[in-house]
Amino acid sequence: MTFLRNAWYPAAWSHDLGETALELQILDQMIVVFRGEGGHPKALYDACPHRFAPLSRGKLRDGRIICGYHGLEFDGTGRCVRNPHGNGKTVSALQVRSFPVAERYGMIWVWMGHESLDGSHPLPELPLFDDPELTWVYGQLNVRVNYELVTDNLLDLTHVEFLHPFLASPGNSARTHYHCEQTGDEVRSVYTIKEEPVTGLFQLLWPDAPATANMVADIVWQAPARLSLKTSMGQGESPAAHDPQLVVMHLLVPQGEEATRYFWAAGRNSAKDSENVSAMLKQGTQNAFEFEDEPMIAAVRSRMRSNDLIAHKPAILPFDEGAVRARRIVTRMLDEERAKHAAI
Amino acid sequence: MTFLRNAWYPAAWSHDLGETALELQILDQMIVVFRGEGGHPKALYDACPHRFAPLSRGKLRDGRIICGYHGLEFDGTGRCVRNPHGNGKTVSALQVRSFPVAERYGMIWVWMGHESLDGSHPLPELPLFDDPELTWVYGQLNVRVNYELVTDNLLDLTHVEFLHPFLASPGNSARTHYHCEQTGDEVRSVYTIKEEPVTGLFQLLWPDAPATANMVADIVWQAPARLSLKTSMGQGESPAAHDPQLVVMHLLVPQGEEATRYFWAAGRNSAKDSENVSAMLKQGTQNAFEFEDEPMIAAVRSRMRSNDLIAHKPAILPFDEGAVRARRIVTRMLDEERAKHAAI
Amino acid sequence: MTFLRNAWYPAAWSHDLGETALELQILDQMIVVFRGEGGHPKALYDACPHRFAPLSRGKLRDGRIICGYHGLEFDGTGRCVRNPHGNGKTVSALQVRSFPVAERYGMIWVWMGHESLDGSHPLPELPLFDDPELTWVYGQLNVRVNYELVTDNLLDLTHVEFLHPFLASPGNSARTHYHCEQTGDEVRSVYTIKEEPVTGLFQLLWPDAPATANMVADIVWQAPARLSLKTSMGQGESPAAHDPQLVVMHLLVPQGEEATRYFWAAGRNSAKDSENVSAMLKQGTQNAFEFEDEPMIAAVRSRMRSNDLIAHKPAILPFDEGAVRARRIVTRMLDEERAKHAAI
């Protein structure tokens, strides 16, 4: 198993990239991200070519990064623009590898693939981030397992009743209707529950909520590991625009075979100005991921000899369709990528 | 080196298996032990066959164990008896491997060997646990080394003067007569010391003890790693029934190549109703094993490249006979087991 | 990569070898050092030949070391001189490997090479330790990297302005003239800075110092990893005997491939009786090594796949000459040592 390289990966929330450089690990590469001239984000391999000191331990000045070991100074393209020693000559070997970067949807994105393919891969489409009706809170965490195990968890919301007891009511699973569909390389799972008691979470978003309502949780997965989950409750047969809605984006970044950086953002279309709701949503979402999902996924990993779920011959149940489809797509894309790279 | 599989291994003291399931590692296998219907102990492989969540993280209800991830429910035979999702169908693949279990001598025992051999291997004989003259205290600890290194330590009590200064008097080693004998696959070492100052430990058991008495420490080993040590002090030539006696059972369970679960129980035939003596014996025994033996055995391991003591060509002294015999028996039994499994 | 074995390595400062034995790791060997008869230092392989208990966990009595596990007693040559058990016989197998030891320059030195070569390798010449003009403070630390990476750091003092801002003034690097020379297998790097602001450190040594002075830092390296750095400030063209001078000895001991024991001593020729200066120098030097150099060298290591700097094709700058020369000498000596050992 390995990673899809030809992809844009999230590096940081824009608001977290300020006046210091960030040290990141993406696909087993160490990367430093910082704001270069004009505040534009830059990404370099995080090692000075002189003695391999991590540049992320250095200082930023005027959009350049100064190595903390011998003071060599690099611009956002990775070129050494100053050698503070002796005659000050730089040599062409003082060039750091740079990575294409973009800033969009409130995030810094880094292209980890073949340089010649950069232009041919547009940034992912995540239009929900542009929806003017939504107010967002953000978070992130590290998960001690392969990203595909996190995808498995997210594409299967039937675990909510058991792992997140505050987010569902007892017996919820038996009442849930599950539907999965695949469009191209996009996998969508829809969970429909009629006359579900309104959860504590939705009561925050829905003043004067009735005792029960119809709930729909609609999650869409894109390779390698971007998921958007829209949950709404309402009184009609299907969700209506004015129904209270909670959107959670899940953006998974493989740090290495056994480590994942997990960015999440939760948007809502009601109680939008309540700082209290923002704070509860931020802490509650973070806690569910950190203290309920993460330990369970790590425990699952402890019972597997590798990250290849399918090779372990799990008992497949109907609601596993989404996760199985996503794994098949990633496997096919990895094969394609290997073939393409062999041809370059 | 590997483990003897065709054996009953201790899993827990009976009094420690209450209303929650226990997660155990035995011979590199993860096992969940719990009380099934009627309170009978059950042992299953500790992973749900659906997504491999450890069942030990689940909940017990009416003698069944409910997976904490998706709520699948298993009985003590490992059969899935309830699927809480959608139409509730279970599939035959939802079957967990179960292990034979027994409850005897105040312990839960698990058979780790070939299923077809279960009936042919009776539980170990540990009649001292049934002796009505004895009152017991119990304990357990984890040791960071292979179980055979712990056996080496226990079959050689000449270390007591040096490693456990409170349990012997100076010069004790020079006065000790050592005798070793083997009967079938049982190894017995007997240490006899004439006119030994009565130790602080025996003063607890012997009111109005004389200044010195004759001491006998008699330890019997059975494969893979069960030892019973009877120590008595008295004024006759050989131990008499009414002499104060301390029995310590040592039951070692290989968790993996470099980890051992160590169950111990200490029984006495005097001061039987004294809570004070019970408390001192419990804490003192635990402390000696945890803070004196365990660090020394781990330090010994740090100087070896493997767990095979003999391959390191140690200088063999007369009192090493017991440990050497026990290692030879285990090696022969491992060979026999490999041959037998090859024939099955 | 491996270690030069035919060398005397520092084991401890003399003042740190008192009434207890020290457990050391040198070139991946575990060694116990203690004071034998007459207080002479002794070095043995740190494992009892009986059951491999570390002798360093034992007790010292009358210049002998008594194993803490079974009480076997060894003299400074590694011979078992007492067996406290039964008939007290010792066997010839009870012999511990001993290492040649010397005490010189306030240190214990251990010869780690071939025994037949002992006589042919004199102790290193470190005459600065005998200089009656100098007063010393001492320290030591563990570094989580290969010793050659520490040598790289020490043979390149151009990092001082950036990594140790309190020891240099801004822009210092541009004003530094660097000269490197090799005499036999000795590498010397000299850094000359005219009209340098007198650093806080030198103000301690130089009452009524002028605002600026000429500074010379002169560092000499000997294989495998001994460095002596003389830094002086003065008003003449070249250093004069009465100029305030600070000498720092750096003695690196490979514990293993990824671990180094680092002994240092700082001597000064002025403010010699000031306890305040001694205390500041001791703490300041220790802090610079522990909190500035050590984390940076470990960070450098984290960006390399091995300890072979040259194999990583670093951009070589003029001031890297010393480090490159030292690495070449060690590589050649390792080749010679392998050839010599093959011939023995």
UniProtKB/TrEMBL annotation, chains A, B, C:
Class of the enzyme per the UniProt entry, highest EC level: oxidoreductase
GO terms, biological process: methylation
InterPro entries reported in the protein's UniProt record: Cholesterol_7-desaturase, Rieske_2Fe-2S, Rieske_2Fe-2S_sf, VanA_C_cat
SUPFAM superfamilies from the UniProt entry: Bet v1-like (SSF55961), ISP domain (SSF50022)
Signal peptide (from-to): none
GO MF, one example: 2 iron, 2 sulfur cluster binding
Domain of life of the organism encoding this protein: Bacteria
Pfam families membership: Rieske, VanA_C
EC number: 1.14.13.82
Keywords: 2Fe-2S, Iron, Iron-sulfur, Metal-binding, Methyltransferase, Monooxygenase, Oxidoreductase, Transferase
The protein's name: Vanillate O-demethylase monooxygenase subunit
Record lineage: Bacteria, Pseudomonadati, Pseudomonadota, Alphaproteobacteria, Sphingomonadales
